[in-house]
């Protein structure tokens, strides 16, 4: 049973279904499905309302030739989803996705400008209604920023701001930002300032979501209309990233 006073969200970089293997192309379809079944197990355990995914594959030659997002949606019993194909070429299909228990409306996908030699990144956006409050809507976003260059991340963050700055609804921005709230990389600070978002303990050093570098790359950022009631980085090995899960409440009463 889901609490109608809270919204539970999660974000995970799926790593194309390879889990902790070196590359998804080295795995058989059955192994990819078994890896995704581990994600399903966690989704059934955690029961999030909305999940943001990155490196999420549609039917791709290198990862079993099936739609990973549709697979997770069906197996986890979370009925609504949207996949933004930021890369679609040579029998490859992947990008960012949202999977939701609540109807996703006004969905859209945005591909960032090319950033050679790295592959195109982007974001997907959807609108949902707060559980039990049919007149209160919010936008949820799954975003993936470039891993290789601070300058590209900042440019992509500016694209996020341009796309979302005029949004009319409160916002939950989630994803793999490939950076933290550091002094050298201002990407997250700029996003927080320009979109008026907050994150949970941004300076904390014990919430690494990318263990191989002991870095916190995966973030949930929320508008001031919301508050963090709980926030965890899960220890389960689902990919080279760890899932981040948060329970959100309303910071002040909203009309029902």
Q: What would you note in describing this structure?
A:
β6 and β7 form a beta hairpin. This protein has a single domain, classed as 4-Layer Sandwich (Deoxyribonuclease I, Chain A). It is of the alpha+beta class. The chain contains four helices and twelve strands, in the order βαβαβββββαβαββββ.
CATH topology: the name is: Deoxyribonuclease I, Chain A
CATH class: Alpha Beta
How many separate domains? 1
Largest beta sheet: strand ordering = 3-4-2-1-12-11
Q: How many helices does DSSP assign?
A: 4
Which structural category do the helix and sheet elements fall into?
A: alpha+beta
Q: If you average the pLDDT, what whole number results?
A: 94
Give the C-alpha Rg: 17 Å
Q: What coarse outline follows from CA principal-axis ratios?
A: globular
Order of helices and strands: EHEHEEEEEHEHEEEE
Quickly give the CATH architecture: 4-Layer Sandwich
**Helix content, binned percent:** 10-25%
Distance between the termini: 20 Å
- What is the fourth-level CATH superfamily? Endonuclease/exonuclease/phosphatase
Q: Report the count of strand segments.
A: 12
Biggest sheet: strands, sense, closure?
6 strands, mixed
> Unreliable stretches, pLDDT < 50, 5 or more residues?
none
Strand content: 25-35%
What topology emerges from the helices and strands here?
Layout: E1 6-13, H1 29-46, E2 50-57, H2 68-76, E3 80-89, E4 92-100, E5 105-111, E6 122-129, E7 137-144, H3 150-164, E8 171-176, H4 187-195, E9 197-199, E10 218-223, E11 226-233, E12 244-250
Parallel strand pairs: 1-2, 7-8
Antiparallel strand pairs: 1-12, 2-4, 3-4, 5-6, 6-7, 8-10, 9-10, 11-12
Helix pairs in contact: 1-2, 3-4
